[in-house]
From TrEMBL:
Superkingdom of origin: Bacteria
Entry annotated with the keyword DNA-binding: yes
Stated family: Belongs to the transposase IS21/IS408/IS1162 family.
Pfam families linked: Mu-transpos_C_2
Residues covered by region (Disordered): 388-417
Keywords tagged on the record: DNA recombination, DNA-binding, Transposition
Residues of the signal peptide: none
Organism: Streptomyces monticola
Domain HTH IS21-type: 1-58
Protein name: IS21 family transposase
Amino acid sequence: MDAHALRRQGWTISAIARHLGRDRKTIRDYLNNERTPGQRRQPPDAFVPFLPYCRQRLADDPHLWASTLFDEVTALGYEGAYSTFTRALRRYQVRPHCEPCHASTGRNVAVIAHPPGEEIQFDWLELPEPPEAWGVGSHAHLLVGALAHSGRWRAVLAESEDFPHLVQALDDVVRRLGGTARRWRFDRMATVCYPSSGQVTASFAAVAKYYGAGVDICLPRRGNRKGVVEKANHSAAQRWWRTVPDGLSVVQAQSGVDKLAARMDERRRKVDGIPVTVAELADAEPLLDIPMRPFPAELEVQRTVSPQSLVSFDGNFYSVPPGLPGVQVHVRHRLGEDFLRIATTGRAVIAQHRRAPRGAGQTVRDDGHVLALERAVLASFTDRAPCKTKVRRPPSAAALAEAEHLRGQPPAGDPAERVVIDLSTYAAVADRLRSAPSPKEESPE
């Protein structure tokens, strides 16, 4: 108001600026009504260029996590913070409304104290509709292990949920965590305990003893008791599995979940009023050392021999003797050993190889298999000229005979065609017999 009053008195913009202690451009904007008193000039919204993409993604998938969408737009060039991004989502009302998701269960919850290094929670996460190239059926299997105190989690893809694959995935998880806690917590999975009683099986008790850990089994219908790993399952399903493309290999998918787990270590926590991250809490946990080699469980999977006499296993290829394309074989590997065996369905071992690193993409061939395959291929070669294609070869007599047989006509030259039955002869004989006199008429009286 002072600027407008002084302007009406004939003051110049420079004089008004010196008198009020403001910049000349500011005084000019107020005098031209380009700025409103009490309102700051808003900077351009960096979210606007990404608004169409966010609308399309949430229209395709209304339940896509904001954190997952934030990862995508960050990779596309968005430079704002996560809080600014979520505020923009709410301001522009990008996410479609879903009424069933707003229903509240209203259950009471309690926070369970977990001392550092005390417990690791394990759980299988079944992932529906995996890429067909994986060859794992209708579900992929991800074993997730989470430190109950800090919340750090790691996960490993497995081909199935049987006992050998459980041991292999569990060993990979604890090695990714940097050690094992004193206790392991599971729900009532049949490979760990007897579901009816909750008693740990003898085979898995040997595994726990090998790693120096105790086993705790959750009570029935008490999934909240291992809520740390359940939340990790939720993050892996929504932030990683939901965006896995069809053409991704198992090794690439494992790399993706490893990157997500490492990024989740950046989550902030507050302990006794001091801000820390999950990574700092996990690094301070006193974990137990693990053995150099995994528990020696025997892993056995079924594979099909390729036309190149190769068998795939753990992201690598191993040779077998030639002459077995399409045959089902069994690949056996004892965890911790440096070699594997390939056997037929009759349990006869046909190949043994040194095991390549998992997911290395190597082709391991035996020299004898290579020579035998070369001999088999060379033996199939011939120096005969190829058959001529531009020749005239009409149907043969045998083919024509078969065609006539199919049409219901007897073939030419059939003896049945030469048999002639003339019924006129029989008719003439019958007429003569009717007109001929009887024996009594012919005898004289």
